[in-house]
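User: I'm designing a mutation panel for Glyoxylase-like metal-dependent hydrolase (Beta-lactamase superfamily II) and want to avoid disrupting the core. Could you give me a predicted structure to guide residue selection? Please restate the sequence first so the numbering is unambiguous.

Assistant: Good idea. Sequence first, for numbering, then the predicted structure tokens:
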Amino acid sequence: MTSQAALTSPIPASAPLRTDQPHQEASARTPVPPGVKITRLFEENMEKPFVLQRLTERTWWVSVKNYTTVFVVGSDSVLLFDAPLGRTSAFREAIASVTEKHVSTLVYSHFHTDHIDDVQHWIDAASEDGINLRLIASARTAAKLEAARSILPRPTETVAWPSSSFTFEGIEVRLHGFEWAAHTEDHGAWLLPTERVAHVPDLISPDQPPFWRFAANERFLFTEDNLRAVNELEWDYLSGGHGNIGDHGDIEAELEFIADLRGVVAEKLARRPLESYVDATLGSHTTWFTQFLEETGREVADRLRTKYGHMYGYEAAAAANGEMVALHMVQYH
């Protein structure tokens, strides 16, 4: 149980999963070597309007209040991935700190509104600069916007699902959609092959435990397949939409974390199967199923604390992630 003192204590120091990995201060001018992360990222996000790190000659990674993305400075203008909710001013300030060029192209990574809800602000800003914003999405994202009767602006261009590409000022942008996507059905990896950068929001949050139920994962069944698919692509830097700058080691660490969760849940189910929770006195199957999930989540958190408990956010995330894995393991064999 979390104590009241813990709830009111100062912000803790960021504790990464891979404690032996190098971390350094963010630099908007000097490219960061692959495999190096930004130090004190959580604190920097809370204390500053944005955290900006140059990746290559033409690409930057930027984090605003725990939402991260990538932008590319082309010969005439800027391409930006996503339009995270409520963060337009800070992202615009970050871009303006390294270039006077305006954003002409914006890519929807996938249709979850927290990552694209501010798109109208970018359309309006582009219009003020005399630009008709080029708004690009996969055909599957465009179809999902229609099916959901979304109020968000529709893309001006679509790229074929699951795999295709488009060009921004001579720079190829390549889509690798997941055949069976886990996070949401229009989820995939967006690659900048010449920059060796991948933008895959919500698949993984490098240096952090997975957010609540693996970032509100809609279909956990295919999570490991998606992680392996991204790991097989050629890139040096990964933007996960949240967390730190990623590398291939983060994918491997995430797969190990999931395997550990699976192991605890499997042991729990072997010791006390789901059927043992059935109790007529509870008056509802909803009640005993909820007890199963909550008990399993608590056991996952307790059993993995020695290995992962040093990570900031662990106590808030572990039980919910354990519940997600438990739900998956009783649904699919």
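For picking mutation sites, this is relevant: Confidence is low (pLDDT under 50) at residues 1-12. Residues 4-256 form a domain with the Metallo-beta-lactamase; Chain A fold (CATH 3.60.15.10).
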